[in-house]
UniProtKB/TrEMBL annotation:
<feature type="transmembrane region" description="Helical">
    <location>
        <begin position="225"/>
        <end position="252"/>
    </location>
</feature>
<keyword id="KW-1133">Transmembrane helix</keyword>
<keyword id="KW-0813">Transport</keyword>
<dbReference type="InterPro" id="IPR018107">
    <property type="entry name" value="Na-dicarboxylate_symporter_CS"/>
</dbReference>
<keyword id="KW-0472">Membrane</keyword>
<dbReference type="Pfam" id="PF00375">
    <property type="entry name" value="SDF"/>
</dbReference>
<keyword id="KW-0769">Symport</keyword>
<dbReference type="InterPro" id="IPR036458">
    <property type="entry name" value="Na:dicarbo_symporter_sf"/>
</dbReference>
<feature type="transmembrane region" description="Helical">
    <location>
        <begin position="40"/>
        <end position="65"/>
    </location>
</feature>
<keyword id="KW-0812">Transmembrane</keyword>
<dbReference type="InterPro" id="IPR001991">
    <property type="entry name" value="Na-dicarboxylate_symporter"/>
</dbReference>
<feature type="transmembrane region" description="Helical">
    <location>
        <begin position="333"/>
        <end position="359"/>
    </location>
</feature>
<feature type="transmembrane region" description="Helical">
    <location>
        <begin position="151"/>
        <end position="169"/>
    </location>
</feature>
<feature type="transmembrane region" description="Helical">
    <location>
        <begin position="77"/>
        <end position="99"/>
    </location>
</feature>
<protein>
    <submittedName>
        <fullName>Proton glutamate symport protein</fullName>
    </submittedName>
</protein>
<keyword id="KW-1003">Cell membrane</keyword>
<feature type="transmembrane region" description="Helical">
    <location>
        <begin position="181"/>
        <end position="205"/>
    </location>
</feature>
Length: 423
């Protein structure tokens, strides 16, 4: 498979996985054989993400040196994230109201999945106040946060460590060199892990098709179609417009991120592409200080695809049960989603838990989500890819905003990709 590029290898894995999964539909033995292969790949990805996030943040923050400049960059980044994710939520609500994916659904013919684990997580998160959520961002034990993969707490600690390294000056240089070395070593490990990606994709897709079958899409086909069309609209129109404002073509960006988008789509894991995304955007002309801060932070605050899914899913449930949501209630829904989506970063099945928590706070029936659970993987695939595009664009926007984008480097990198493609 060496003569094929990573994107082609992953696509072959995807096609074979669908075929094998369809052939062994309902066969638990086949699922049991494939599941460990998929789990190994996901474990490899999770193994490298946290060291990269810590090293990238420390290097970017300590590399800036000027704390005032860093504060301005951080403030602008959070402001941009908030604006774009709010637009994504609004677009999702608008699409749900225009196309009514939940109207006329016959719930008796829908397969219901067990969502008790998600409900327990949602309940535990709902019991936590907004003040407690802010307190939780600050780790009481960083090693415990590392073990639990609590990304918000890890980001907070890494930012402080980066500032500390910058402030102590000369004494901090060995620490900066250490983390810079860690970052480069982790990128090398990432490239090694990616060689296993086609096998991981094959297994993950195979397991899902074998479990649920392609037929599981039919009853909820309208919901899948509405979510997919809305996300395409958001990427090519909304993000495309933002890209045009900063002088970048969204289609050029998509070509640059081809491998990462296919990997994100097939694995439904944002973590799978985080290391390569940072590396790619640096090659495209974004300063390391910006990409290493913006992209890891975006993984907790800038999830555009997830925002669209959450808004449509919440209105879909109301429509399924014939519950009319007034304009005021939908504005409340938007505000609730703005809060809950930020508070769930790092939670397993975060988007699913966000919708459950939101439904509960709005007095809507939670059991409606049990009907979506069976096709959630199909929805997760595209929302993950949209999250990747949103965070890649955010790093370009921030680089341009800070006046650090290297236009010549971007041109050279784009030209090199064209040559590779022709070859």
């Amino acid at each position: 498979m060496k003569k094929f590029g990573l994107a082609t290898q992953i696509f072959i894995g995807l096609a074979l996985g669908i075929a094998v999964g369809a052939f062994f539909y309902g066969n638990e033995t086949a699922t049991a054989i494939l599941q460990p292969i998929g789990d190994i790949f996901l474990h490899l990805i999770k193994m490298i993400v946290i060291p990269i996030v810590i090293a990238a943040l420390v290097v970017s923050i300590a590399g800036v040196g000027d704390i005032k400049k860093l504060g301005k960059l951080g403030g602008k980044t959070i402001l941009y994230f908030e604006i774009v994710t709010t637009i994504a939520l609004a677009v999702g609500l608008l699409a749900a109201n225009l196309f009514h994916p939940g109207t006329g659904i016959d719930m008796e013919n829908l397969e219901k999945s067990n969502i008790s684990t998600y409900e327990e997580t949602a309940q535990s998160k709902e019991d936590v106040s907004i003040a407690d959520q802010f307190v939780h961002i600050i780790p009481s034990n960083i090693f415990q946060s590392l073990a639990e993969g609590d990304l918000l707490a890890i980001v907070f600690f890494s930012v402080l460590l980066g500032i500390g390294v910058a402030v102590v000056g000369e004494k901090g240089k060995p620490v900066l060199s250490f983390f810079d070395g860690i970052l480069e070593a982790m990128f090398w490990i990432t490239n090694l892990v990616m060689k296993f990606a086609p096998f991981g994709v094959f297994a993950l897709i195979g397991v899902n098709v074998a479990k649920f079958g392609i037929g599981s899409l039919v009853p909820l086909g309208k919901l899948v179609l509405v979510i997919y069309l809305t996300m395409f609209f958001f990427v090519f129109v909304i993000l495309g417009f933002i890209a045009k404002i900063v002088g970048v073509n969204i289609f050029v960006m998509m070509r640059i991120l081809k491998d990462e988008l296919i990997l994100a789509f097939t694995t439904a894991s944002s973590e799978a592409v985080l290391p390569r995304l940072i590396e790619k955007m640096e090659k495209f002309g974004c300063p390391k200080a910006v990409t290493s801060l913006v992209i890891p932070t975006g993984y907790t605050f800038n999830l555009d695809g997830s925002s669209i899914y959450q808004a449509i899913a919440a209105v879909f449930i109301a429509q399924m049960y014939g519950i009319h949501l007034s304009l005021g209630e939908q504005i409340t829904l938007l505000l609730v989603l703005m809060l809950t989506s930020k508070g769930m970063a790092g939670v397993t099945g975060a988007s699913f838990v966000v919708v459950l928590t939101t439904l509960s706070s709005m007095g809507l029936p939670l059991e409606g989500m049990a009907f979506i659970a069976g096709i959630d993987r199909i929805l997760d695939m595209l929302r993950t890819s949209v999250n990747v595009v949103g965070n890649a664009l955010a790093s370009i926007v921030m680089s341009k905003w800070e006046g650090g984008f290297d236009q010549e480097k971007a041109k050279r990198y784009t030209a090199s990709l064209k040559k590779t493609h022709v070859a």
